[in-house]
Write a structure and sequence with these properties.
single chain; about 45% helix
Length: about 200
């Protein structure tokens, strides 16, 4: 039975729910994943249960372009077909046959939780709260930066909508900082105003 038929109250579309079931699954499980992406190690996320090494005997997860002391996350297993369909930057990298094309791996210099939420969005077209993905506004604020870096207008609008709607004391300062990095002046001013209004609690 398709995953979409088992979750009648899901925030995801039917296709998104089905693709979500394939996201970050070990290649040995028969998921068909054929590409690995890492991010920066995230001190706030427990990745102890995630294997750092790809179980495939032919896999090589070394990243020659990173310094030897680089702190990378466990690999996130994805499908090139989905990334090419949903992420214009990946399509350009793939067509130009850069190093990632040959090694079948990529490193994104953003926190693991943000990179994983970004890739999950590519599969589901959703940044709705989820027990594993987009659990806090910290991740959504990080996604806003990625949306601007990679010129993804729909993701940008989803992030702006959720951040402006759910802005709170715990995350206002982070939203202010990330909005500045992303060049989102309207959201930056809103977060600054919120911080000033709740100065004693932020």
């Amino acid at each position: 039975m398709p995953t979409s038929d088992t979750h009648p109250t899901s925030n995801l579309s039917s296709l998104g729910a089905d693709l979500a079931a394939m996201f970050d699954q070990d290649p040995a499980s028969g998921s068909g994943s054929d590409f690995s992406i890492t991010g920066e190690k995230d001190i706030n996320v427990n990745t102890e249960d995630k294997k750092v090494e790809d179980p495939s005997p032919d896999a090589d997860l070394s990243y020659d372009f990173l310094p030897p002391v680089a702190s990378t996350s466990p690999p996130i297993h994805v499908h090139k077909l989905i990334l090419r369909a949903r992420w214009p930057h990946f399509t350009r990298v793939y067509k130009s046959q850069m190093a990632e094309f040959h090694t079948k791996k990529m490193h994104i210099p953003e926190p693991y939780s943000v990179v994983r939420a970004f890739l999950y969005y590519l599969y589901t077209d959703s940044i709705a709260p989820h027990p594993e993905y987009c659990t806090s506004l910290d991740s959504v604020a990080g996604l806003l930066v990625m949306a601007n870096v990679y010129d993804m207008p729909r993701l940008r609008l989803l992030c702006l909508h959720r951040l402006s709607r759910e802005l709170d004391v715990e995350h206002a300062a982070v939203v202010w900082e990330r909005a500045g990095t992303a060049g989102e002046e309207w959201l930056r001013r809103r977060a600054a105003s919120y911080c000033l209004t709740h100065w004693g609690r932020v």
